[in-house]
Design goal:
Blueprint lengths: L2 E4 L14 E4 L2 E7 L13 H17 L8 E8 L5 H12 L5 E6 L9 E8 L1
């Protein structure tokens, strides 16, 4: 297997023993991104602001491999509160347009940094 570690300063550094992304076998696997501002390292406030920042972080990592959200084939959205599902769906749709990837969305008890949302994606290279 040919594996390449992807890292960019345009997205937050990993807060644990993992890579921002791995390119392997024709796909880019991006670790979950939260609403962390890469310049301050702080979590932005509010679920909608966190969702927008998570998409900015994902886009920055995709850009490091000359990809965009249009190259995403699968996403997984973790929500702290499923009551935010409708608001997040609107934001999600705005970022993906009409070319939606396959997706899972789950409610979780807790996320790192007490984030309200985390999104991970897989993109085709």
């Amino acid at each position: 297997m040919n594996k390449e570690i992807i890292s960019t300063k345009e997205a937050p550094a990993a807060i644990g023993p993992y890579s921002q992304a791995i390119a392997a076998n024709g796909f880019l696997y991006i670790s979950g991104q939260m609403g962390v501002d890469p310049t301050t390292g702080a979590l932005v406030e509010g679920v909608e602001a966190q969702a927008h920042q998570a998409f900015k972080n994902l886009s920055a990592i995709l850009k490091a491999k000359n990809l965009t959200l249009k190259d995403v084939v699968k996403s997984l959205v973790f929500l702290k509160n499923m009551d935010d599902f409708t608001a997040i769906n609107k934001i999600y749709a705005d970022y993906f347009g009409s070319d939606f990837p396959a997706r899972s969305c789950v409610e979780v008890a807790r996320l790192p940094k007490d984030a309200m949302i985390e999104i991970e994606v897989i993109a085709a290279l």
